[in-house]
Design brief:
about 120 residues; 5 helices; globular; mainly alpha; two-stranded parallel sheet
Length: about 120
């Protein structure tokens, strides 16, 4: 269990908890979009990467800041579209947008948002 959220940490246990707490339609949607390909292919591709630490380098002035499309960000990270989050949480995309804002992350609003994109933008 994750001490902060009270949710299981292991993916299969988390999936089982989701199945117990979501409607059948919502659970099936999330299972079929998050578990089946292309996710399996993505995981296999990531498994091919290896991060090699570099030792003996000056890291006194390291920054992860980037500029993308004229916007400065603390790191080159975007929160990908999280479709139909309103089926899993009442706040849906509004809550995701606020969480992204709180962490300084750019949120990409999904085409299949359960909230109007204008409302999502206002919430953040």
């Amino acid at each position: 269990m994750n001490a902060k959220s009270g949710l299981p940490w292991e993916p299969r246990e988390l999936a089982a908890a989701a199945r117990r707490n979501l409607t059948d339609g919502a659970a099936t949607y999330f299972e079929t979009t998050a578990v089946f390909p292309p996710s399996a292919e993505n995981e296999a591709a990531w498994a091919e990467w290896r991060f090699v630490p570099r030792v003996g380098r000056d890291v006194g002035a390291v920054s992860t800041e980037v500029e993308i499309l004229g916007a400065k960000m603390g790191a080159p990270i975007l929160l990908a579209p999280c479709a139909f989050t309103g089926r899993a949480h009442a706040g849906g995309e509004l809550t995701v947008a606020r969480a992204a804002l709180d962490t300084g992350t750019t949120y990409v609003v999904p085409q299949t948002s359960t909230k109007a994109p204008r409302d999502v933008a206002k919430s953040a």
